[in-house]
Design a protein that fits this description.
By secondary structure, the protein is an alpha+beta fold. It contains 9 helices and 26 strands. The longest helix has 18 residues. The relative contact order is 0.14.
Length: 473
């Protein structure tokens, strides 16, 4: 990142702001400075439809007193406005005797997102040509492709976190994403396909295997065409095989959110008070890993100033840990786990996932398919709904296939998976040795905030899930 307004923030200024935040007698305060710049390009019907650039700048101040939280922010980094925000957050929290000052120590952060080819240094016309390339590839795949939409986005964020318990940490966070959507039509029927990639990288993303504009154009078209011949989904309880990579979204939603510490602190999660107890098949080891190089959900430092970490959540079926932020870790009497995340300076940090993964097992993926007499192969998901308190979920699939006599056969449409997260984990009977990290553009929503995340898993066989379709199996 080039020169940033945060370069002007010095230690003396942060000390004045922290003193103002704590002058009412709060226990703790932190400052979250943010400068973000981004651009996007949209291409549709053979021409550029949108080009945009944006910049955000601001400071969020959080103050804690016992169980009370005060939060305020300003979009101006003038000292008087920042002091006003600090005092406002302090007044919201509580009053009492002010704590003494603490010397600041710079946090040693990781270096997980090395950029080889910064997109913000490249001309816009070069990015438009990428979009044209994807459009041409999708349309050339099959004449039944009638519409193509292509998008490119890039962003860079400069973050400075300073805390009253002595931490100061700074991070420069890049992100790029490329997406293609295709629509196919035949005999009055229309189907869509989508392919996308995202990472904390630069232009080198589109040079990686399977990530070029042509690759994404072909994949989006392939899926749209395949779905034209899809048959109605069966309905009933049956074996389901989750494909590697993309199907990790089911793990993220149906299990991951329930392992965020705030839900367990408030006793609203189905995993409350379950540490050390069996919550899954012994074949299941689940981790949240914010330290994967260049991954979409990785973080050098979280939004509370803690370095990113690899946290084992479930080990061989036993619940090992929750994902912690400062508030929850104090409640549980353990260290924060590097999972305090927020959308921007306008938001308070919450316990959030980074890259949530099911670890590889010992089974050959082909043996897993061969073991299924009749079931569903779930490859891609569009999303779903989950009840955190009990783990019940409903997920819609965008790409799935029938498994018959150990072979993947017809593509299916209208497939929904209905079940319960903990119950599904207990019914995992085979785990493949083919772990994949999804390259997709996954974003996680919670309490009105969105943050980028990663997902991944190997091929997984579940002994039974309720499949919601349009015909009885």
């Amino acid at each position: 990142m080039a020169a940033s307004p945060l370069d002007q923030i010095d230690v003396r200024l942060t000390e004045r702001l922290l003193a103002a935040a704590l002058e009412g007698g709060a226990d703790y305060a932190d400052l979250y400075f943010e400068y973000a710049a981004g651009a996007h390009f949209g291409f549709e019907d053979g021409q550029v439809k949108s080009v945009g650039k944006g910049v955000t700048l601001g400071l969020g101040v959080r103050v804690l007193k016992g169980d009370s939280t005060g939060y305020a922010y300003t979009e101006e980094l003038a000292e008087d406005r920042m002091l006003e925000a600090a005092r406002t957050a302090g007044r919201i929290a509580a009053s009492g005797a002010a704590p003494g000052p603490v010397a600041l120590t710079r946090v040693s952060v990781l270096d997980l997102y090395k950029i080889k080819d910064a997109p913000w240094d490249r001309p816009g016309q070069e990015k438009v040509e990428m979009l044209r390339e994807a459009d041409r590839a999708a349309r050339a795949y099959d004449p039944r492709i009638i519409r193509v939409e292509v998008g490119w986005g890039e962003s860079q964020k400069d973050v400075l976190v300073v805390t009253s318990d002595g931490k100061i940490a700074r991070d420069f966070q890049p992100m790029v994403r490329f997406s293609v959507g295709a629509v196919a039509e035949e005999d009055g029927k229309r189907q869509t396909g989508r392919s996308a990639g995202a990472a904390r990288r630069g232009m080198e993303l589109i040079k990686m295997e399977g990530q070029s504009p042509t690759d994404h154009g072909i994949e989006a078209a392939r899926l749209a065409i395949a779905m034209l011949s899809a048959q109605e989904a069966p309905a009933g309880t049956m074996e389901v095989v989750l494909g590697p990579g993309e199907s990790g979204i089911l793990l993220h939603e149906a299990v991951g959110h329930g392992l965020e510490a705030d839900f367990n602190r408030k006793k609203t999660s189905n995993y409350t008070d379950m540490i050390g107890k069996s919550v899954a098949s012994p074949l299941c080891t689940v981790v949240d890993d914010g330290t994967l190089m260049n991954a979409r959900g990785s973080i050098n430092v979280d939004d509370e100033g803690n370095p990113g970490r690899r946290n084992v959540l479930i080990e061989n079926g036993i619940l090992a840990a929750y994902m912690q932020d400062r508030i929850s870790s104090k409640h549980f009497g353990i260290a924060a786990s590097g999972n305090g995340r927020r959308e921007s300076f306008r938001h308070e940090p919450l316990p959030r996932m980074t890259n949530t993964l099911m670890m590889a097992g010992q089974d050959d993926p082909q043996d897993i398919i061969k073991s299924v007499k009749k079931g569903v192969y779930a490859k891609n998901f569009s999303g779903g709904q989950v009840n955190i308190s009990n783990g019940d979920f409903v997920f819609s699939l965008t790409e799935s296939y029938l498994i018959e006599d150990g072979k993947i056969t017809a593509p299916l449409k209208g497939v929904n998976l209905i079940g319960n997260g903990p119950d599904v984990l207990r019914k995992v009977v085979m785990v493949g040795n083919d772990f994949e990290l999804s390259p997709g553009t996954w974003t996680c929503g919670k309490d009105g905030q969105s943050v980028p995340v990663g997902i991944g898993n190997p091929t997984i066989k579940i002994s039974e899930i309720t499949v919601g379709g349009t015909k009885t199996s």
